[in-house]
TrEMBL record:
Residues 72-157 form the IPT/TIG domain. The lineage of its organism: Eukaryota, Cryptophyceae, Cryptomonadales, Cryptomonadaceae, Cryptomonas. InterPro entries: Ig-like_fold, Ig_E-set, IPT_dom, Plexin. SUPFAM superfamilies: E set domains. This is IPT/TIG domain-containing protein. Gene3D superfamilies: Immunoglobulins (2.60.40.10). Pfam families: TIG.
Length: 223
């Protein structure tokens, strides 16, 4: 409803003096060809479905289509706020005034926009793209043109890798402290022994310490 959107209007037999009229308001327009003009949407008082008319300089309308004004979306934060540089992580973006449609997209930094999945007026889900390690802005668009940026950034981290751990065995009662060596981020959240996640403590980008949870006898994959 804030206006200012560049709108491309396609038609037939358009003239250099053709103009866009949003309800009773004639907006600035630019003639591109006999089949295309661009218009700047004027502000609206509230969200509504209005009539967009192509008019000549004499004010007589030639044809019209429907145009929808939406409330201005507000984007708060991504959850989680960090992920691997290899991408592929589902990220829930929280905010207000989201709406579903083919133009619903997310953009991480300067990466190409990608489709978003509508959850509710307060949340959409996006898949993070591959990216080098960096803090980037994250934006949401309802129409594929106007993007609104979150107040919090998203952190792309180096991909994790596990090279070794010590000790490699312990009692089934758990509580053993295991040093895991590899390539990690200092913001790493935890380890997983089999299907059981557990908190980790970062020592350096190359070492973390995990406390082993109770587990039945046998071999468990460490992640």
């Amino acid at each position: 409803i804030g206006g200012g959107t560049v709108l491309l209007v396609y038609g037939d037999n358009l003239q250099p003096y053709s103009a866009c009229q949003f309800s009773a308001t004639i907006s600035a327009s630019k003639f591109i060809s006999s089949s295309l003009i661009s218009c700047i949407t004027p502000p609206a008082e509230s969200a509504a479905l209005i009539q967009l008319t192509l008019s000549h300089n004499d004010g007589i309308g030639t044809s019209w289509i429907s145009f929808r004004y939406d409330p201005v979306p507000v984007v708060y934060l991504p959850d989680p706020s960090a992920g691997p540089g290899s991408g592929g992580l589902p990220v829930t973006i929280h905010g207000e005034n989201f709406s579903d449609g083919i133009g619903l997209k997310c953009r991480f930094g300067y990466n190409e926009p990608s489709p978003a999945r509508f959850i509710s007026q307060d949340a959409v889900v996006c898949i993070s793209p591959p990216s080098p390690p960096a803090n980037v802005t994250i934006s949401v668009s309802l129409n594929g043109v106007d993007y609104y940026t979150a107040s919090s950034q998203f952190n792309f981290q180096p991909d994790l890798s596990v090279k070794s751990l010590f000790p490699t065995f312990g009692p089934t009662t758990g509580n053993t402290l295991v040093i895991v060596r590899g390539s990690f981020s200092l913001g790493l959240g935890g380890c997983k022994f089999g299907y059981v996640p557990f908190m980790a403590e970062s020592i350096s980008p190359d070492e973390i310490v995990c406390r082993v949870p109770p587990h039945r006898p046998g071999v468990a994959v460490v992640e």
